[in-house]
């Protein structure tokens, strides 16, 4: 990945729906070169998906919670992760170091829905402990971050 790829990624991160022609003007490349670079970024796995970020309350998810989960033993990991991946209300799952093994971000309609999700998680074999935090307000919500370009690459443009 070079400085031009980084600029293209930055443009797509700001608006993944913008036209290649708009990006080409911004990064000073031809439209076909921009399209080729985007395809290479996709095929290499650097771009994994295009998505949207919604206002959770506007789509009916009035409650966001972060749940920490500790498993009794690593042998329960595979089934636990499968269960988490199948639940549409669990929007993020991170494997952690420390006292807890996983951190989940859960978005749902109400505390009643969260109670049902919590019960389902607690019923999974091997779940030893949970700790839930209610989100009062979201101050920042970006899907991914782009690291700063190393100085030698940035200067090469």
Query: How much of the sequence is in beta strands?
Result: 15-25%
Number of separate strands: 4
Distance between the termini: 12 Å
Q: State the helix count.
A: 6
Largest sheet: 4 strands, antiparallel
Helix content: 25-40%
Oligomer: single chain
Short description:
This protein has helices at residues 3-14, 20-27, 31-43, 77-86, 111-122, 151-155; strands spanning 63-71, 90-95, 102-108, 127-134.
Structural description of this entry:
There is one protein chain. With 157 residues, the protein is an alpha+beta fold. The chain contains six helices and four strands, in the order αααβαββαβα. A four-stranded antiparallel beta sheet has the order 2-3-1-4, with helices on one face. A hairpin with a 6-residue loop joins strand 2 (90-95) and strand 3 (102-108). The two termini are 12 Å apart. The mean pLDDT is 92.
